[in-house]
Amino acid sequence: MPNIAILGTQWGDESKGKMTDFLAEKVDVVARYQGGDNAGHTIVVGQEKFILHLIPSGILYPNTINVIGNGVVVNLETLFTEINHLRERGVEVGENLKISSRAHLILPYHKLMESWNDLGSGVNLGTTARGIGPTYSDKMNRYSGVRVSDLLEFDLFRKKIDFNLKTKDYALSQVSQIDKNALLEQYHGYSKLLEPHVIETPDFMHRALKAEKQILFEGAQGAMLDIDFGTYPYVTSSNTTVGAICTGLGVGVKAIDEVLGVTKAYVTRVGAGPFPTEMPTEIDEEIRDIGKEYGATTGRPRRCGWLDLVALRYSARINGLTGIVLSKVDVLDHLDEIKICTGYQYNGKELEGFPTSLSTLEACSPIYETLPGWKTPTTEIRQVKDLPEDLNDYCDFIAQYLEVPISIVSVGPERDQTLVLDETFI
Ligand code: GDP
Ligand code: IMO
Ligand code: MG
Questions:
Q1: What are 291-324's pLDDT values in tens digits?
Q2: Ligand 3 (ion): which residues have CB within 5 A?
Q3: Does the structure show a pLDDT above 90 at 112?
Q4: 327 lines ligand 2 (CB under 6 A)
Q5: Domains of the chain
Q6: Which ligand 2 atom is the nearest neighbour of the CA of 298?
Q7: 149 C-alpha vs ligand 1 centroid, how far in Å?
Q8: Which end of the chain is more exposed for a tag (fewer CB within 10 A), N or C?
Q9: CA dihedral angle for residue 52, residue 54, residue 58, residue 60, rounded to 10 degrees
Q10: How far is the centre of ligand 3, averaged over its atoms, from the C-alpha of 91 (Å)?
Q11: What is the pTM of this model?
Q12: Of residues 21, 37, 41, 226, which has the active-site annotation?
């Protein structure tokens, strides 16, 4: 199998966890390269359900190495909780987990800074409240960022914490207090636990590529939440698109052979921000119920909408997609008709592409085509030839519009509910 990037094309929660786990069986390395524990990636194996926030979704296969790259922001409390939960359930986590020495740490004050940002600015982005934005901000300003390697030089860590608590004093005093000594003690403990996992990711990845190991690059969030290309400021604080693989792990572009865009057969969005194809309340509730659309990280209800091909084409181009994974098609099994957005109408004209301006986006009305539903239960289908004709037509419509083939169709959360249309991925 080629080295595959698996990334979200919409507003997150497209089934990246399921697809990464599905493809991970045959690979040597699964690497995360951006985001942090704002991600919630679900894997279902029989009666068991795993929700991973930080650990890559290759962890259930004992021979796969899982890498957390420098582009990821790491909350050590989440990391060790996740490791412990996995171990309690019999999943081995040891030498198979590697963490970049260059990754930045999410520290307890970052979450508090985030609640202050919401309070102080009066802008509520509806974040996951994991301190993602403040951590990436500290990384970029260069004075305040704290890296994994700093924790391993504890005196340096102590100095940085001193400086950061002083500079953030006003904001922190508005929301809560940080007990510096308790923080230092807690992180001293973490440094010992972390050390055996820490590596130079570029060296590791280089060796893996040279030895022709097979690699999956597991994205978090989705293209429409990208800091540059998404619906700013209602986005996350990292690049969620393909370029982040190179900068978030230290590999060249040629390390990536295929770019699979995981795409829900409809769309969901959690948190605030424009959403042109959002469904009216009744159908929104119905789809949320059937699709169990509640956040894997925060439990918040996800807003549901019709498939938006304008946003998806934009996403396909930014990422250079070579294939689409169409997930959760089973959620639409019961519908008589399915709407699909093929254009945005603005001021009486159809827009050329996806607009930058939020006010333009908010003023757009979607242009819909209506396709017939397949009205057939799909969750038991195990062979491509058994997919209903109207579902094949739905797939063809999407592929033709995007000029990207549908490579995989997912008809349920489990591994065997996956139909591979393109044998590159078998
Ligand atoms: P991720 O963040 O992209 O990994 O996606 P999430 O795990 O947040 O959300 C996807 C949800 O849909 C999870 O609860 C999965 O178990 C579930 N799921 C994945 N694929 C399918 C599918 O094809 N059909 C159905 N019904 N559920 C799916
Ligand atoms: P996965 O990897 C869905 C959303 C939040 C909020 C915005 C900013 O599971 O697909 P942040 O905490 O990142 O500053 O929040 O981004 N968001 C996600 N939505 N899936 C995710 O991850 C998300 N990660 C962040 O809801 O709107
Ligand atoms: Mg998720």
A1: 999 998 889 999 999 999 999 999 999 999 999 9
A2: 13, 40, 296
A3: yes
A4: no
A5: 4-102+198-258 (3.40.440.10), 104-194 (1.10.300.10), 263-425 (3.90.170.10)
A6: 26
A7: 35
A8: C
A9: -50
A10: 21
A11: 0.97
A12: 41
